[in-house]
Design goal:
This protein folds into three domains: 108 residues, PAS domain (Beta-Lactamase, 2-Layer Sandwich), CATH 3.30.450; 76 residues, Helix Hairpins (Orthogonal Bundle); 157 residues, Histidine kinase-like ATPase, C-terminal domain (Heat Shock Protein 90, 2-Layer Sandwich), CATH 3.30.565.10. By secondary structure, it is α+β, with helices and mostly antiparallel strands. The strands form three sheets. Strands 7, 9, 10, 11, 12 and 13 form a six-stranded mixed sheet that branches. A five-stranded antiparallel sheet has the order 2-1-5-4-3, with helices on both faces. It has a two-stranded antiparallel sheet with strand order 6-8. It is built from eleven helices and 13 strands. It starts with a helix and ends with a strand. The structure holds adenosine-5'-diphosphate and magnesium ion (MG). Adenosine-5'-diphosphate binds next to helix 9 and helix 11.
């Protein structure tokens, strides 16, 4: 039996340290997970490769000191590029022939996909609950609202075009319109999305969105840069729904740059390790990415977990429904939304969508 081959073939990262904490084995999965080659890792102290506080270093040290196994299901590992990867971690002692602890083995499993799915599930539950509530109360408001609108329209007609009171009826109609739009959005969140999915060319959709947002961008001194991959395959999607998603994302990006900046719209075939290929039930499907990047205020760490929650907003006149609706629509398209943000530097929202075939 070729044990070396077994270790190399394992999907879990296996790291072995000797009794002093020096790395003696580093399999292929450990290379992939950490971004560090076996050649560069073996022979070095584990605590030089990671920080001394890193979970893997602490647990290996404990195992070396006590001869006992340790496990940490919710640990984090920093890669060479400084990315934090959620991992589950188990360590076990290796005993020498004389019964002393001769080393320790650490087994690390990348749990990013599982964590992502858990987040999705939680998000989905909040959305479903909010949606049910919203539908109930939107219906209650819709009827009286249309009576108000009817009455105001009659009033405006009675007053005639020259009355100075027309100013007030105009305000009433505008505001009723606003409430109506809010209700439509609430209903949208609550009812199942009926997709009319056809093969779509993403540029046409993005160009339409840019056209609709140009005015708002100009007002804030925001330049929109388009970086489309000309060989991008078509996606399977619902045109109006896709426009709705990108209108929201581009709108948020513009609103995040009150004193101007560059908004980049890019498309590409995804090479992402996590979402570049998704199994949608009938084998692996390639994904494309639409990236909406701004140089705006960014999202504070404390807000990051809540931006998809319905009604979460940091804007004075915000509704906090935009991202909730985007999430809903992208999910129905079997896609994924990913947000990366640095405060005061900007935000990048990546929308992964499966290609049509
Ligand atoms: N591009 C962005 N830059 C900074 N913050 C953002 C961005 N996109 C979303 N956010 C944050 O997420 C919140 C929710 O966004 P959204 O659901 O679209 O609602 P709204 O735009 O009505 O506030 C925003 O209030 C804002 O705090
Ligand atoms: Mg918004």
């Amino acid at each position: 039996m070729n044990y070396q081959g077994v270790l190399e073939g394992l999907p879990d990262a296996v790291i072995v340290a000797d009794s002093t904490g020096r790395v003696v084995l580093w399999n292929a999965a450990a290379e992939a997970l950490t971004g560090r080659s076996a050649r560069r890792a073996t022979g070095r102290m584990l605590k030089e490769l990671f920080s001394a506080h890193a979970a893997v270093v602490r647990r290996v040290d404990e195992t070396l000191a006590t001869g006992e196994s340790r496990s940490e299901p919710d640990a984090t590992l920093s890669t060479v590029e400084g990315r934090a990867v959620p991992v589950s971690l188990v360590t076990a002692p290796l005993f020498a022939a004389d019964g002393t602890v001769g080393g320790a083995v650490g087994v690390l499993r990348d749990v990013s996909r599982i964590r992502h799915l858990e987040d999705e599930l939680r998000r989905g539950e909040t959305l479903a609950a909010a949606g049910r509530m919203a539908v109930g109360f939107a219906h209650e408001i819709r009827n009286p609202l249309s009576s108000i609108r009817g009455a105001v329209q009659l009033l405006a007609r009675e007053l005639g075009p020259d009355s100075h009171l027309r100013e007030y009826t105009d305000v009433l109609l505008t505001e009723v319109g606003r409430v109506n739009r809010i209700i439509e959005m609430l209903l949208d969140l609550g009812r199942p999305v009926q997709l009319r999915a056809v093969p779509l060319n993403l540029y046409q959709i993005l160009d339409r969105v840019v056209l609709l947002c140009e005015e708002a961008a100009r007002e804030r001194g925001v330049t929109i840069v388009r970086r489309y991959d000309p060989s991008l395959p078509a996606i399977l999607g619902d045109e109006d729904r896709m426009v709705q998603v990108f209108l929201n994302l581009v709108g948020n990006a513009i609103e995040a740059m009150p004193s101007g900046g560059t908004l980049t719209l890019a498309t590409r075939v995804s090479l992402d390790p996590l979402f570049g290929k998704m199994d949608l039930g009938a084998g692996q499907r390639a994904m494309v990415e639409v990236v909406v990047a701004d140089e705006g205020v960014g999202i504070p760490a404390a807000a990051r977990a809540r931006i998809f929650d319905p009604f979460f907003t940091t804007k004075e006149r915000g509704l906090g429904l935009g991202l909730a609706i985007c999430h809903r629509i992208v999910e129905e398209h079997r896609g994924v939304l990913q947000v990366d943000s640095t405060e005061r530097r900007g935000t990048t929202v990546t929308c992964f969508l499966p290609v049509a075939r």
